[in-house]
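Instructor's aside before we start: the two examples that follow are unrelated to each other. I chose them only because their records fit on one page, so don't look for a connection. First example below.
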Amino acid sequence: MLVARAGKGPAGADGGPKRTPVAGATFCAGAQTLADIRAIRAQHGLSPRKALGQNFLLDHNLIRKLVDASGVGAGDVVLEVGPGTGTLTEELLSRGCRVIACELDHGLARMLRERLASPTSGRFTLIEGDCLEGKHALNEELTRTLREMTGESAGESVGAGGGGRGFRLVANLPYGAASPLMTTLLASWASCRSMHVTIQREVADRLLAKPGTDEYGTLGIIAQAAAEVSLVATLPPECFWPRPDVTSAMVSIVRRATPLTDDLPRLAACCQKVFGQRRKQIGSVLGRGFAFPAGIGASQRAEQLSVEQLIELSRVEGSA
């Protein structure tokens, strides 16, 4: 499901989003057809919410393609944001994954609890609410759950790649959450070992962008510094119901064993600064008195610099 973020979910006992661990028997997935999705929603009195941009991926071959590309299997911890009616969730559970799903739509969250209440062997945890707390951090309940299930924390271990079991993001991502969520996980969560996601094609283009192009910016630079990025598939609008107005893409983002920088948050902050005024010369953004690294001139624009040059720039800018 591709859904734009908006607002917060209902509060749990501690004031944060609702968290529901669900237990039961062995689970077997069954592909959800368009008729199935319509029936599930009708049964629960739900309809696609245009305000949230809800579009449901119909082709189960593509769902399997995404999960196959991720390589996840029995015992792996998987984060899914925007599970919708649960068709991708069911595929992940059928492969023995431990799924943490985060759903903003309260009606869909209620339906997921009922639908997956008995058949998941305690491998399904549902968090109802926004996956993000602002633009640069996961919500508190999701953060706690990930730390509990992986034994890792955010931020400090990014350069080392993390030392615990880690988790993977496998999701048909909400359009509005895709860029800030991926940037946050790449820059601050070394325990996120990989991301295999369906997103807008224009966001995929930004992830893969090269210097000198309009698509080149913070998201792609952080992704390329931290991971190997590749295109899995391009999805036309007719793969979804209701049909979106844009083309979508599946991408693979696999974290490097050794990232190009040991300070991804600093790189992210520097990129956000210089690309925030991308048409200006970087000397105007950083100040003419700034001591630029060798090979970088004050008259250049951010989009002209390679990932490696921006890493060097971030080291100097961060210590200035």
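Example two begins here.
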Amino acid sequence: MRSSFSLRERVRVREKRHNHHNKPLLTISQKPMSQTLLAPPKQTASNADWLAQLREIVERDLAPIITEVDAKGVYPREFMHAFGAAGGFGQSAHDGRGVAATIAAMEIISETCLSTGFCAWCQSVCAWYIQHGQSQRLKDEVLPDVLSGVRLAGTGLSNPMKHFAGIENLNVKAVRTDGGYLINGALPWVSNVDVSHCFAVVAHLEAENDYLMAIVDGDAPGLRLGGGGEFIALEGSSTYACRFTDVFIADDAVLAHPCDDYIKRVRPGFVLTQCGFGMGLTQSCIALMKKANRSTAHVNCFLDDTVEDIESDLMELRERVYALAGEVESARANLFRDVVQARYDTADLSLRASRGAMLYAGAAGYRLGGATERKLRESYFVAVVTPAMKHLKKLLHDLPETA
């Protein structure tokens, strides 16, 4: 027979089971957290209308094809173009709504499909590189099309970010030639790329013992896009292995050379905006947990990590992330360390939320093809995509903490 625990009794049970957490719990007098999670802080009426428009595009063009994206690896090209046309990728530009709006856009997509949310991040961060780079031609000719979604774009910085953190060697080399550089090497996985797309690449100039970062076209002579193997999720992210054989990079396609200072300028935005797809995933898991509670709240309340815990922690994380978005280009001493911590906490919360959704659903969530098992697979991508949780932990260890 179903337990007749009242809400107040269930909260008392949770208080007894959670004393070791040392954090405040939901009380009877608190209003539902979902009222505060629908939009980023400091939202204006204009932003509210824009975000509502983005949600409509997601519901119309993306939600109906989730199964094809996840199970069949279909790339949501038409959605990407439509989302870009509505300004979904252009908000971090200097005339846009800001980095906070970029993160909010990624949250909206990732609530429905993290794979596509990740593609949106690739698109937005490539625009971020170009607008902070030295090439005026890229800013004049390429950036407007990337911001508007006319030209789709990826980011090839997984290997370089790990290289600059002392984790692995850089896989791409460059030599000087007339009017530019020739690059050779391979990147195992670059996402949101195709022959009609463009993406960023970092190469080591061995003669100078220095680095350059540039934008390369997906159909550049000497560039081969190959299969990167099958993944447990993110199959619809248009991810390829990229092999460079004497690929020419013109001087006006170079974002930075040398690029040490440039990488330091763009990496806070690179890392922080990833929080958008992790927080969107977490929000969707909260919805699944609440749905499960319609029939099993009387037993789910005994779990250590409850929907109230996840929702409270998401609210705190979002406040932190959106505050950091307002200073992502500042020179504050501990900024990047705070960004790294927020990104780590995003991955950790994503894992907790997907685990919670599965435990709340029970056997019903263990069926292949359901939202719960998809969220579980997607959450591990948040944990392992560069910078992965172990990478983030290393950064927190290595970065000095200034008083």
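The CA atoms of residues 131 and 140 lie 10 Å apart.
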